[in-house]
Amino acid sequence: MIHAVIFNLEGVLVTTDACHKQSWRDMATENGIPFDDNTFERMRGLGRMEALDILLSRARRRYTDSERLVLSMRKADLYMEHISNLDKSCALPGAIETVIALRHSGIRTAVASSSQHARFILKHLGIQDLFDAVADGNLIEHPTPHPEVFLLAAEKMHIAPECCLVVDDNGAGIEAAHRAGMKAVGLSDAAYEPFTDYRAEDLENIDILALVHQINREKKE
Known about the structure:
The chain is α/β, with parallel strands linked by helices and 221 residues long. 45% of the residues lie in helices and 11% in strands. The chain has a six-stranded parallel β-sheet. Strand 2 (108-112), helix 6 (118-125) and strand 3 form a beta-alpha-beta unit.
């Protein structure tokens, strides 16, 4: 029986792509480094230092390791400034409605994210009280596809892993859910991952509460 739904944050409940893009653009402008959409596409999904290396490949000079560290910290500060401007209107379509519907039906909800800023983002969205637990990058040692973040979310809710349903838009997250013994809903590109149990384009195009009821009816039968 499914008693809890665990949501990834980025790409499922909210997108901070614009915040990342603008913070990289601001830092590049400050340092006279060319930046365009193609550069950002190459940086997308990478760790901060790896993304920085791509940006610096367009610079007119070489940067020392200490300078690279300073630039990395500056980017992080700029990102924090931009996500501070997030509000409830920045939640992805269907996200808040889905979580509220689950909670009204007695289904527990959690966020599992590798981001160290997950709680900060939830607070600025004004939806932190809609979740029974948050497992984020400050609490885990292993990123997905390791199942640690989902197992921690389940543990914080005192729910057995097999009683949790994960909603993620990333292939590594879907694999992590599978390794944790959880069923998974794959959104967007993750809908085509081999470990995905249920598929949809986004939360506007799937009724998660109805899916939970369907799974639980099938379990009873």
